[in-house]
């Protein structure tokens, strides 16, 4: 990964070599890098008016293997800028927290871990997704990113979970995104014939026996509920998961 102090400098150095698509991406990032790091690859490519492959070519032209690596270094650069501007600030700034979370997530979501997870998901003919509150966004994103593959991935609103629980069979998987894993939604899944995979940042919760598989992502103390970046981290996990599911 490139040193985060150079990420902006590298774009400046290479901008004379940029294609028209590269220029569109460069201008969007330069205008508001803080907003960019909160966007998914699909959202950023749409905002720039380019394709996702064009975005991939852009970051590879800067020396990065993946867009996630570029975004991680951009977040780190932003955190450094905020630290320099507020040297006496004692609390963790948003970008500093995000940078730390990305580093911790990278240790968890290794290539072997993701391949094993995809093997598990591929056992099921139908995959449903849902999420509690803000965590419904990654559930919806997973459905959107998988549409073009022709595979069955369907986001289900919380209000319909009880009906879904009753109708699922052993060939169905429900992926639940929940920061705290304490919502009553999980309790309503008791007795379902389908399998449940929980994506959370909470290791201790009362629904361990209901869960067939768990993805535990990092968070910054004191509590997962107070970690404002958790839903964003869920989106990043979904993007990485989809890359493995489609390749």
UniProtKB/TrEMBL annotation:
<dbReference type="GO" id="GO:0097367">
    <property type="term" value="F:carbohydrate derivative binding"/>
</dbReference>
<dbReference type="InterPro" id="IPR000281">
    <property type="entry name" value="HTH_RpiR"/>
</dbReference>
<dbReference type="GO" id="GO:0003700">
    <property type="term" value="F:DNA-binding transcription factor activity"/>
</dbReference>
<dbReference type="InterPro" id="IPR046348">
    <property type="entry name" value="SIS_dom_sf"/>
</dbReference>
<protein>
    <submittedName>
        <fullName>MurR/RpiR family transcriptional regulator</fullName>
    </submittedName>
</protein>
<dbReference type="GO" id="GO:0003677">
    <property type="term" value="F:DNA binding"/>
</dbReference>
<dbReference type="InterPro" id="IPR047640">
    <property type="entry name" value="RpiR-like"/>
</dbReference>
<dbReference type="InterPro" id="IPR009057">
    <property type="entry name" value="Homeodomain-like_sf"/>
</dbReference>
<dbReference type="InterPro" id="IPR036388">
    <property type="entry name" value="WH-like_DNA-bd_sf"/>
</dbReference>
<feature type="domain" description="HTH rpiR-type">
    <location>
        <begin position="5"/>
        <end position="81"/>
    </location>
</feature>
<dbReference type="Pfam" id="PF01418">
    <property type="entry name" value="HTH_6"/>
</dbReference>
<dbReference type="GO" id="GO:1901135">
    <property type="term" value="P:carbohydrate derivative metabolic process"/>
</dbReference>
């Amino acid at each position: 990964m490139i040193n985060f102090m150079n990420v902006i400098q590298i774009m400046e150095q290479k901008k004379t070599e940029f294609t028209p698509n590269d220029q569109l991406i460069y201008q969007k990032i330069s205008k508001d890098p803080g907003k960019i790091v909160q966007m998914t690859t699909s959202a950023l490519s749409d905002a720039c008016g380019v394709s996702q492959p064009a975005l991939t070519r852009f970051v590879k032209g800067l020396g990065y293997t993946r867009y996630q690596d570029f975004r991680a270094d951009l977040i780190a650069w932003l955190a450094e800028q905020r630290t320099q501007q507020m040297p006496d600030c004692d609390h963790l700034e948003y970008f500093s927290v995000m940078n730390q979370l990305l580093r911790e997530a990278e240790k968890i979501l290794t290539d072997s871990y993701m391949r094993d997870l995809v093997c598990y998901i591929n056992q099921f003919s139908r995959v449903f997704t849902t999420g509690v509150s803000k965590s419904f966004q990654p559930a919806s994103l997973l459905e959107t990113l998988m549409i073009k593959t022709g595979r069955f991935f369907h986001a289900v609103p919380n209000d319909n979970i009880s009906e879904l629980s009753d109708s699922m069979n052993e060939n169905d998987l429900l992926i639940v995104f929940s920061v705290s894993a304490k919502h009553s939604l999980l309790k309503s899944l008791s007795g379902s014939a389908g399998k449940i995979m929980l994506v959370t940042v909470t290791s201790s919760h009362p629904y361990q026996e209901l869960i067939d598989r768990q993805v535990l992502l990092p968070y910054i103390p004191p509590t997962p509920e107070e970690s404002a970046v958790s839903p964003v981290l869920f989106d990043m996990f979904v993007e990485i998961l989809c890359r493995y599911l489609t390749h």
